[in-house]
Structure formats: C-alpha cells, structure tokens
Amino acid sequence: MKFFKTIFFSFFSVILAAIAISSCTPIAHTKDTTTTTYTPSLRDSAQIFIVGKTVFGVVIKDNNGSAIPGLTLKVTPEMTMASGMSHGTPVESIVDNGDGSYTVTAYFLMDSSGGTWQLHFHVNGTHLSNQIPITVGGSMMSRGQLKGIADLITPDSSMPMTTGPRPYFIFKSALDTSGASGSHTIDLFLAAREDMMTHVAVYSGQTLTNEMSKAWTTGTILLSVCNTWNGTACTAWSDLTDKGTGHFTGTGLTIADTSATPGTTMPRFVVHLNVVNTTAASNEWKTTGGVPGAGDGTGPTEFSNINQ
Ligand SMILES: [Cu+2]
Asked: What are the tens digits of pLDDT across the range 139-155?
C-alpha cells in the first residue's frame, strides 16, 4: 500500500509538474509580419486653434484601435499658402501623457485666411499618411515679428538661391495684468526661422544657421518690453529674463497702456530685440522690415506691437 501511495504521488507530481510547465510555457508567437498602422486624432474634437500659443491634445491609435503611449512623436503643423508655398510653425514641446494621448504646445504664425493648415505626424520616425486639417483663428496681431538685417537665412530649400532677413517671432506665453500698474507679469516665447519648415526657440547659447549654411552661436539676447509709452515712443524699457528655453519673463511691469497708438485696445505691449552673434562678434537690433533706417522704426528701438 505504501508502495502504491508512492507510485500514486509520484504520478500525481508528474501531472502537476506537467500542468505547471504547460501553464508557464509562453504561448507560441507567430512572427508578427504586419506593420502597425498608427492613426492620429485630436483628443478634443472641439479644439480651437489660434494665432499664437495653442495647447492641444492628440491621440495616436494602432490598428487595433488602442491608444498607444511611449511613442516617439513629432507633430508638424504645415500651412500651404494661397501662393502654393508652404511653411511650418514653432512647436515647443510634445508631452506623453502615458495614456496614448500627447499634449502639444505650438505657436501658430498665421490664421487660416491665407491658406490651409494641416497637422502632420511622425511616429517612431515614420511620416504617417493621415494628416489632420485644422482651422487657425485669432488675429495676426497677437504675435510680433522682427527681422534681421545682416542676419540672413535661405528660407526655402526648393529655392536655394533665395536669401532674406531672418524673421524672429514673439509670442505671449502668459500675461497677468490683473494687478495694479507696475505689478504686471509677462512670459514671452521667442522663436527664429531657420527655413520655411524649421523654427527654433531662441536663447543665449542657441545654434542658428546662416544663409551660407554656416552655424553661429547666439550670445546675450536682449528682449525688452516697453514699460512707459508716451504716445509715440517708448521711454522706459524693461529687459526680460532669458530662461534658456525660448521663454523670457518679466515682473513689476506696466503692460496696459490706454495712451498708446490710437485704435489699439489694451492690454498692449511693445518689444524690441537685440541678438548677439558670438561667432561674428557682432550684435544687431532686429527691425520691423529687415532694413535699417527711415520707415523701419527708430534706430535701436525698432519694435513691433503685440495686441492681445
Ligand atoms: Cu502662412
């Protein structure tokens, strides 16, 4: 009987072991020969896009309809102008929310009145065939633009001989004018065009490329906002703090100014911009038109308006 028990338990153990082994054995995978097809969508179908800072969510789903986190995602807004020429816009960041949605912070250069905007997507280096058409509203006055003089770029890779002044774009990232005059705060985002599709944040130590495809390095960036406007000119500038990310911040400001240019609404602000080129050991006040002199601002105080 004892012998039987031993046999029985041995037999039983073998069965248990077999069950254990089979339950631990990985399910045989057939090699996945299909390529995952990713499909982008807007997280919020009612998303509004405006000239200037726009934060929006996108969701990337695979061909099973599952939202996929952890992707290397690039989102490229592209505007095709009525002329047929295309350009991009600055994209500051794309944050993976971990749930298959990604939050994009972009700064739109133009509204949709002069052409059409589409969002392009690259997932893990592959350009998705699906684009998302969007409508950008808002006012062109809600971003500033200043241009280089000697600071040139070749703006369109399809027209390599075409060079022109480098545009710098200034956007409001945050503004608080709720306090009394002298206590306003501001956060501007500064971007530079490298070519029609490429726009980069500007800060001291950034590398930019000139019209000869030569790299140069920025030194001190002086981005100032007018604190006192006498009706025709700025009499007191406040230099903003370069945060090293494209953001420039200031506190203790007086942004709202009802005595500014007729027809403008408050709050209103005026900026000027000087960029040191450490490679050329030079600096340059950026201008409204890309040329110095009459009709293009007033020497070192060229400015552009940013109405909100
Ligand atoms: Cu455009």
From this structure: 887 888 899 989 999 87
Structural tokens at position 177: 């004018």
**138 Cα–ligand 1 center, Å:** 13
Q: How far is CA 14 from the centre of its chain?
A: 63
Indicate which CATH number applies to the domain containing 71.
2.60.40.10
In the reported structure, the alpha carbon of residue 156 is separated from the centroid of ligand 1 by a whole-number distance in angstroms of 14
Residue 16 carries which DSSP code? H
User: Can you name the residues that pair with 167 across neighbouring β-strands?
Assistant: 147
Of 183, 172, 191, 146, the closest CA to residue 284 belongs to 146
What is the C-alpha to C-alpha distance for residues 13 and 18, in angstroms, rounded to an integer? 8
Distance 157 CA to ligand 1 centre (A): 17
Cα of 287 from ligand 1 centre, angstroms: 20
For residue 21, being part of any structural domain is answered with no
